[in-house]
Design goal:
With about 400 residues, this protein is α/β, with parallel strands linked by helices. Helix content is about 45%, strand content about 20%. The termini are far apart.
Length: about 400
């Protein structure tokens, strides 16, 4: 007889909630007043960044590890991951006394590899993609008789991730819509099963990075064309799961794509408005709301913020680019006679006109500046984009030639 039962049910997810209770955080879920005012929707944020490893993956990882037999625990486990699943498996395996080996792609962000080792796992950097890392992990697992812990295509993993939606709907039962990031699809699969079982009318929207539309293309029967450098590395999956693809096709209402600039903007807003650090994959859901506010106007949204493991250098770059995009940093070229005292005159004027000088660079040798004159490039912090015109006009009124070198902006 053929088994036609669903691979994961609401009962499985409720059972997972009991298994992980006390060992995984019930993370904050509350409406953001500022983001709600900005978007015209009621935006409630499920902040999985407050898990010990700063990501939701702990839920599924622990549920899977707890199902191991005593013999499997002694032999140990192996997993492949770009970072978050790695840290989740490492943390809970070490806590449970289970040896863990994690295979990560060679270009995995430094902080994620380092944190995985710190949490007690043996890290192997192998392959240029998740798929190549997975192949090597399976090879190691077969050689060492280790249990392979898949990051998403496993019923126990999916059930564990579904506890996110249980907590959301327990806190705010009348949500209209859940927005969930999609990489391999484990998180949205579990959340969709849980949410639809509780409220069949709730809308479930998945969010992918535009450079990695793997799940959307797969479900549409299209050739997968996922590639490129994305800040949302946690959802940069080229081959989505087979089990998760089936669940998503049945339970998820829509999958939307968000651009890199919009994801960057969302990361910046989380830091500036909510005062929290969010990785690109975790910010993708807010990016989707910002990208199409008319669609969500007046609705009660549950926005899953899946993780906060962003490389410090990347975060610093995003925050500074955010200031540029908001019109609060300007680059200015000033040309003055190359004589003593002129630099002091210009910097004093800029300060008087309301600019805060962040960087200064002299150009005397290149031919775009006439001999006998000095080109001085300034990076200036200003209160608003309109202040750049006031500074240029004020310098001109004092006989100083100035022009704007950049005027990048991100639409709100």
């Amino acid at each position: 007889m053929i088994d036609v039962s669903p691979p994961v049910t609401i009962d499985d997810i409720r059972a997972a909630a009991g298994v992980i209770d006390g060992a995984v955080e019930k993370t904050p879920f509350a409406v953001s007043r500022t983001l709600s005012e900005m978007t015209g929707a009621s935006v409630a944020l499920k902040l999985e960044i407050f898990q010990y490893t700063a990501n939701f993956k702990e839920r599924g990882a622990l549920n899977r590890l707890m199902a191991l037999t005593d013999d499997e625990r002694r032999r140990g486990v192996v997993a492949m991951s770009a970072g978050n699943h790695a840290q989740a498996v490492a943390y809970h395996a070490t806590r449970l006394g289970i040896p863990a080996t994690i295979v990560m792609p060679r270009d995995t962000p430094f902080i994620k590899a380092t944190n995985t080792e710190r949490l007690g796992a043996s890290v192997v950097l192998q392959g240029s993609s998740l798929e190549e890392a997975a192949a090597h992990a399976r090879k190691l697992g077969k050689a060492g008789n280790l249990t392979f812990i898949h990051p998403y295509d496993d019923p126990l993993i999916i059930a564990g991730q579904g506890t996110v939606a249980l907590e959301m709907l327990n806190a705010i039962p009348d949500l209209d819509c859940l927005l969930v990031p999609i990489g391999g699809g484990g998180l949205i699969s579990g959340c969709a099963i849980a949410a639809k079982a509780i409220n069949p009318d709730i809308e479930i929207i998945g969010v992918e990075a535009a450079l990695f539309p793997s799940m959307r293309q797969s479900i549409a029967g299209e050739a997968i064309s996922a590639s490129g450098d994305t800040i949302a590395d946690g959802i940069a999956v080229k081959q989505p799961g087979k089990l998760t693809r089936k669940i998503i096709a049945e339970h998820v209402d829509d999958i939307v794509l968000v651009s890199e600039s919009r994801i960057e903007h969302a990361v910046h807003l989380f830091a500036e408005i909510e005062k929290v650090v969010v990785e690109g994959a975790g910010a993708a859901t807010l990016a989707a709301v910002l990208d199409d506010p008319d669609r969500f106007q007046g609705r009660k949204l549950g926005v899953v913020v899946s993780g906060g493991n962003i490389d410090s250098r990347t975060l610093a770059t995003v925050l500074m680019r955010g200031l540029v995009g908001a019109g609060r940093l300007m680059r200015l070229r000033v040309e003055v006679p190359d004589k003593p005292g002129n630099l002091a005159t210009v910097t004093t004027l800029i300060g008087t006109l309301g600019g805060n000088i962040v960087e200064v660079h002299h150009n005397r040798w290149f031919r775009d500046v006439p001999a006998g004159r000095s080109g001085i490039d300034f990076v200036i912090e200003i209160r608003a984009a309109a202040d750049s015109e006031a500074i240029i006009l004020g310098l001109a009124e004092n006989g100083i030639d100035a022009r704007l070198l950049s005027s990048d902006a991100v639409a709100g």
